[in-house]
């Protein structure tokens, strides 16, 4: 196995001169060199051929000893200089100071087919940024990250990728629900792959430390390597500072990312500014979850149970809040708040347009105007009257025909009935609300001459049939812990084609089973991972 090394970050940005691995406050550096910990009995549990291809590795490479040694952290290949990044962040709305890669170690950047990728091990041991923790990751959270990042990619959601899931053979102590019941769990390492792992927090830490020189260096570096078009632009933006062009692009990408999250029902769970990629990609899969019942107030993260800051319906506002923090960090390079404010203001109006266009597409409207906003808002309200499975609902809705092919709204309701966790009383208020909504919906559909079949095809291209429901990941974790990786393979294959009908896999197109309703790992997750 040969990696096509193409390091830039650890070449061009200032390194922490100290090479020991003590926890410390790092100043004047973008990263610290570190060495991954050697696992005692590493074993590949799953690897993605698709991601391997992206970085120029073959199927044979995946099966090689070299692969296992490199991506478990057991051996650092020649020429590779692993490092942990220094960054800060706002956690749950409060400035937390220096955070950094406490259990992530960047191995290297590679170049393949003109694209550069950063390879990063998560859970490969301590770094100067590990603070009070051990730098390790448990199998359950690593498996969840590996499967979910690939599932997100195939859903068309911008995301970091995952090359491999490797058990380390070492046990890791965790207090899973923070209730004093700590126990040993199997450890694992995931190799994440992304253009870069630069976060909002990388800029914030320099700004917070008043290190404007390095703030400028990191910004120049990021624009040069990752946002090369932002300093050319069209004529009207000729005088614009490259920093502003960069910020605008980050804002657009972050907005697009969160709209995808809302579309598929993904709840990140910990949208701290250190968990925001400047590429507008989903990053740091921790206590994330998938909406089952459509509910704007739902969060999977028990650590956030009190204030629900990161609940489903609040995610877009949190992206905006996080962008404001990034703007504050970049401000010293521009010293003019107006262009930042304009971009943040624009985010609000763009959000309304893009969000409604997305929701419209979910119900088969390709030409949404503000006249449709009420129909869409009514839908969201109606969906929350009684527990209604989001994925099932939108998928089944594609079968509701327009015009007179069915006798009435009752027939439409029968088509989506399977989405209800309990069918509403036919004579009750919920049924009446749905009938009213369906009446308006079909009036709207009848304004278009698109056929039922064409509309269904369009809807099925944006409404996934299969998502990684929380209990599915947990089943895979239980089976893998018992020594059987077959469910990882099955779910990985299933989630590669989330929009396709897969008749052999109908069992995964179903509501969450009742046993999973209040089970830890299925509906309740903590940050402990
Ligand atoms: P998170 O919000 O989970 O992404 O993590 C917040 C910060 O805590 C980051 O700086 C992580 O690197 C660090 N962290 C989380 N878990 C661990 C761990 N087990 N060991 C060391 N650092 C950790
Ligand atoms: Mg993080």
Structure description:
38% of the residues lie in helices and 13% in strands. By secondary structure, the protein is α+β, with helices and mostly antiparallel strands. The protein has four domains: 9-200, no CATH class; 234-361, no CATH class; 366-460, no CATH class; 470-516, no CATH class. The strands form four sheets. It has a five-stranded antiparallel β-sheet. Helix 5 (139-155) packs across helix 16, helix 8 packs antiparallel against helix 9 and helix 9 (315-330) runs antiparallel to helix 10 (338-362).
Task: Summarize the SSE layout with pairings.
Elements: H1 9-12, E1 31-33, E2 43-47, H2 49-54, H3 59-62, H4 65-72, E3 83-85, E4 88-91, E5 94-98, E6 104-112, E7 115-122, H5 139-155, E8 161-174, E9 183-194, H6 200-208, H7 212-226, H8 242-264, E10 266-267, E11 289-290, H9 315-330, H10 338-362, H11 373-383, H12 390-397, H13 409-416, H14 429-445, H15 452-460, H16 470-481, H17 486-494
Antiparallel strand pairs: 1-3, 2-8, 4-5, 6-7, 7-9, 8-9, 10-11
Bound molecules: adenosine monophosphate (AMP) and magnesium ion.
Short description:
The chain is 38% helix and 13% strand. It is α+β, with helices and mostly antiparallel strands and 529 residues long.
What are the key terms here?
single chain, 529 residues, alpha+beta, five-stranded antiparallel sheet, 17 helices, 13% strand, binds magnesium ion
Tell me the distance between the termini: 31 Å
Quaternary organisation of the protein chains: single chain
The SS-based structural class is alpha+beta
Distinct small molecules bound, one entry per kind: adenosine monophosphate, magnesium ion
- What is the typical, i.e. mean, pLDDT? 95
Total count of strands: 11
Major β-sheet strand ordering: 2-8-9-7-6
- Count the DSSP helices: 17
Domain unit count:
4
Q: What overall geometry do the principal axes of the alpha carbons give?
A: globular
Strand content: 5-15%
The description of the largest β-sheet is: 5 strands, antiparallel
Radius of gyration: 24 Å
Percentage of residues assigned to helices: 25-40%
| Stretches with pLDDT under 50, minimum 5 residues | none
Secondary-structure element order, as H and E?
HEEHHHEEEEEHEEHHHEEHHHHHHHHH
